[in-house]
Every structure is written in C-alpha cells, then in structure tokens.
Amino acid sequence: MLRKNLRLAVKLRMLAEPVLTYYSVWGGRFARKNLGFMKQLFRSIALVCLAAIPVAATAAPTEATPADAASAAIPAAAPATADTMLPRPAALEPAVQFWIRVYTEITTDAGFIHDQQNLSIVYETLHFDAHSSSRERERQVDAEKARFHDMLVRLGHAVPPANDEEKRVLALWGAAGTPTRLAVAADDVRFQLGQADRFRAGLIRAGVWQQDIAQVLAREGLPPQLAALPHVESSFDPAAYSKVGAAGLWQFMRSTGRRFLHINSAVDERLDPFRETEAAAQLLAYNYQLLGSWPLAITAYNHGAAGMLRAREELGTDDIVRIIRDYHSPSFGFASRNFYVSFLAALTVSQHPQRYFGNLPHRSEQQFAELRMPSAASVAAISAAVGVDRGTLQQLNPALRPAVWRGRRTVPAGYYLRLPATGDEITASLLAQRLGHGHAVLVAATDTHAPRAAAGLAAQRGSRDHRLQRRLCPRRRSRPRARPSRRADPRRPGHGGARQGAGRARDRRPDAAKRGGACCHRRVAPPARVRRDPASRRRHGRHRPRRHRARGHPA
Q1: What is the DSSP string of 147-201?
Q2: The whole model's pTM is what?
C-alpha cells in the first residue's frame, strides 16, 4: 500500500507538469483564468495520496509475534545524527577521495584521465597551457584518451606490457586487472577537469549567503550539512548557467523552478540566491518526504525523484551503494551516479577549508531592506523615487531580467524590491506616492528622443491619440490645412472641379499624417493593416486580381 501510494503521487505530479504547460500555452484566455484551479486540483490529489501513507501503515492490524515482543524490549533509538542521516559508507570512500582531489589539488588548467567506474584508477594528470584555447584543450584530451584506450585494448588481449607506461597502468589495477576487465575499461576512459580554483572562490563567496542558508534549512527542519550543496552545483556563483539551462546558486532548471519560483520575461528568481535557497529547501524536503533517505533525496536533486523511485523499486533497496553500482539507466549517467559522493567530498572540504586552502578571506553578509512593489514601474522611475542609482539596484536585485534594465519591461507589481539598508526607510505607501506623482515624467525621461518616441506611440494607438502627437510637434501643429475648392466638376455631377480634386488630395495629407504619417520629417507606420505585395499575397493565398483602369477615367 505504501509503495502504491508513492507511485501514484509521483505519477500524478509527472502527469500534471505537461498538462499544465499545454493548458497554459494553448488554452487561451479561459485556460489562464482556470490555471490556478487546475494546479490546486493536481496538488490536492497528490497530497491526498501522500496523506494516505501513514494511514496505510497503521490501519492494517496485525497480530503480535515473538519478534515484535522482543523488539518492544529494545530501548528507543537515539536521535538521528549527521552520521546516520548522511552516511559515508566505506565502499564509497575511494570515490569521495577522488572528488576531494578534484576540488583541492588541480585547477581548471589541469585534469585527471581516469576510469569512470572505478574512480580510484587515475591514469594521468593532464596539464594545459594557461593561454590555450578550448579547442586546443579538447584535441589534447582526445589524444590522451585515445592513447590510454589503445593501451587498455592491447592489455585486454593478454599481451605482455611493452613499456614502462603499460606496466604502470597494469599495476594500477592490481589483482582486478584481468584481461576481461581491462578490455571493458578501455571504453570507460574519462577526463575530469579540476575545480580547485573555483572551489576556493566559492568558499570566499559563501560568506555572503551562509547565514541565510542556515536559517532557511533550520526553518524547514533539514540537516545543516546541505548548505554545502551549492559547492557542487555552482561553486556559490549566483549567476552561473549550465550547458543544459540550469541557472543560479542551486542550479534550478526552468521547468523545476516554475514549481517554486516566478520565472517570466521580467523576473527570473533562479538568479536570486535568497529566493532560490528557499526553493531548494522545499525541493529537498519534498524529495526526503517521498524517498525517506537523505542519500536518495540528495541524488534525486540531480536525477529527479521519479527516477530514484524507479531505481529503488527495480533493485528493491534503499542502499545508495547498491544503487550507484547496480542501477543502470540511460538517464542515470556519471553526474547522477556521482552526485552524492561529490556532495560528501564538498562537505568535507567546506568543513575543513584551512586544511586544504589555508586561511581564506570571507565576504560579509549582504545588508538590504525589502519592500513590496505597490504597482508596476520602470527602473528609471524607481531609481528617481528612492534616490538609488541603477547600478546599486541591479546589484541588489539580480532576479530582474535584462529587458527590465533596458527599459523594455517594468518591474512587476508584487515584486519584493531590495534597497540599500540605510537609516532612511522607504515604505511601500511612500514609494507608491512618489511613483504616482512622477511616474509619467520619469518614463518619458528614459528616452532621449521623446518627440520621436511619443510620435511612434501615438501612431500605434491610432488617430484617437493624435492630439499628443500634434502637441509634441509644433511644426506639425502650425502646418496650414488646404481648403477644398467649391467649384463644380463638369465631368462628375455633384462634385467640384479639378481644383477641388487637387484640394482634396492636399487635404488628405494631414489626415494621413494624423493617422500615423510624417511627423518632424520622420515616417511612422500607420496603425491600419498594411497591404502585402502581390508576391506575398500569392504566397498567403489571398491574391485577388485587380481591375486596371486608364489614368484620368473615373472608377
């Protein structure tokens, strides 16, 4: 019953993500109105399944057995400690030591050529020229990997070592270096880049957010050792981006981040270390609630909770050693398989930084004040209202996207704006009052070409805003309008003559400009639908032949 409810909860969660995405993107206005209801429905079903777990565990009455009676006489277990919650099995110790070497011995100008299954086998330490390009480094790595691959293939055919290098490689394997094992190891040659310089920089940067991370983990009831996880993910770089699209201090993917954070064209809270820390704590708590084991919950942070559930069900065990060694899946690659051991290595180094790096400086904690935006406003308006320059605002609010700083988007209402912690406190009501008095002027001041920008805005809105365009363009306002002639047209009864036709043609110019024509000698596109050229009309299937008439004849 327990496993059935767990599987059902995870499957509902996996089903909800693509359904909600499709519903929100293609459902239109009705979908946007009811998206909150759909999310709440899926969450409620999943919570009901999770709530049934303790009920299922206690509902079924069982008869007392001698084993139960014996276990009742055993005193209660001691409270869980770091050693029991985050075990470090002896079987994983070689892998932990390998990652400690990666984090402390070699920088990003060097790397290890090693076996990816047995991390205690390091064939060579490869060094790069500090000024070499990435392509040159790739060629050097590929050449060394090919050399050791060919060497292991020869040794796998039971050929005696031909030189000292092959003898050294054979000695690395010891008794386990049988021809069959060496033939398999030929395809497991891997390169690992060093991380010592990045880890050292991360230890220095960690002081900015260390206290906040500890408070969040304590509030969620999580082990404080989890604060070392950003060393593995980003080396405590809040602006880090991975090749697969993960971002921020805790490296959230966009799809996972949307479960806990605001991510849109104006705000990406993955780049806010404080908001992403809260989301990471919630995700880790969710993984532990689902899996019941911190080694599995930490591995699920990289591999996903559903993937770790499949691994546990396939092997029938919670033992992280067996899962790392015996579970095989296309998605359970080197990074997922080594995520827990690399975390243990990062935890060891972060707990004893002086042993590996000596005395390091620490950055002080960031001091700021937060207030909730009462309404949407541009960065220029906020900067003038609070008296803080744009650079300081950008440093304190990394979640705001580049479009906001370029003036293409506004800071949305409800966003928690960070300001320098000074003696003068600015409240949300005071900010709303200042923005309400100066918002229009400040938005116009963001563009140095105010008449041109306003003219373009009026053209987009249509002729109903032509007064603004005429007010900003005095030359246009003073242009005289041509009066049509009232003389009759002998060719067309009831109409004026040729001078009236010319007058009407001149009279149409201001009207055309008023709908979006020339202002200050600049052409602005009219708001009406622009006719396509004949070739484009034929491509879109809307071409209709026109009736041509001779010049001078009436239509």
Answers
A1: HHHHHHHHHHTTPPP-SHHHHHHHHHHGGG--HHHHHHHTT-EEEEE--HHHHHH
A2: 0.67
